[in-house]
Amino acid sequence: MLLQVRELKVGYASGADVLRGVDLSVGASSVTGLIGANGAGKSTLLKTICGFLRRRGGAIAFDAADIGKLQPSQLAAHGIAYLMEGHSVFPGLTVEENLILGTWAFRKERARAKQAVERAFELSSVLRAKRKVKAGLLSGGQQRILEMERLTLNDPRLVILDEPSLGLSPKLVHEVFERIAQMKADGAGVLVVDQSARHVCAASDHLYVLRLGEICIEGPAASFSDRIDELVRNFI
Ligand code: ATP
């Protein structure tokens, strides 16, 4: 397994544990979906894996090495890419300039950086059409596509996505999940949290349901596909 989370306990300040012993794994070349009600602890789990919060207990391993004490920048250098909730484009720079900034890992290999940017334009017709447009003028959905492309420019091994389809039009939601499938085809492990349980289930190999800080259900996503409404009704 690429990522292994074991018995993870996390809380804020002096409050009670928000995550109360979470076990979760993500394999290479696969998509793992995580769904759950508002406040279940999904974002807390992703932030902890990505080094923005410290665990109170348990273990987080990437490639079998303990990463629980690393900083976000160190995790990025290890090949872990994280799309947070909200927007993080540079509004005054063009789409192309935003992508060029995203190739930091290849800063000493200009040809490779250029190739990565061109591939992003090949993969996304939305961005291709807006190449020279300032990112701040894109719609929220287009900005989200730009963020996702920028995230994958450095060939990450693990991609962690928090609500990538939030507030997007159906066409862009489709593009987001197509892009997730491409990340898997490129060999990355993907961990995705999204409000759309149906889309997450369809895109995932393995599905977890988080409830009140604990995994209450997990299994191959295909085993839930014909009862996803029931799952949402009972647990989300
Ligand atoms: P949502 O879908 O609404 O984003 P979530 O499943 O991602 O929900 P979290 O954002 O991880 O849930 O929140 C889990 C719990 O932790 C909630 O009870 C929330 O109020 C609490 N929490 C989140 N951030 C903080 C914080 N900075 N300080 C204190 N408590 C927090």
Automatic annotation (TrEMBL):
- GO MF entries: ATP binding
Say if the entry is tagged with keyword Cell membrane. Answer: no
Q: Where is the ABC transporter domain positioned along the sequence?
A: 3-236
Q: Which Pfam families match?
A: ABC_tran
- InterPro entries hit by this protein: AAA+_ATPase, ABC_transporter-like_ATP-bd, BCAA_Transport_ATP-bd_LivF, P-loop_NTPase
Q: Which UniProt keywords apply?
A: Amino-acid transport, ATP-binding, Nucleotide-binding, Transport
* Keyword flag Magnesium: no
Give the family this protein belongs to, as stated in its UniProt record: Belongs to the ABC transporter superfamily.
Q: What is this protein called?
A: Branched-chain amino acid transport system ATP-binding protein
Protein's organism:
Ancylobacter amanitiformis
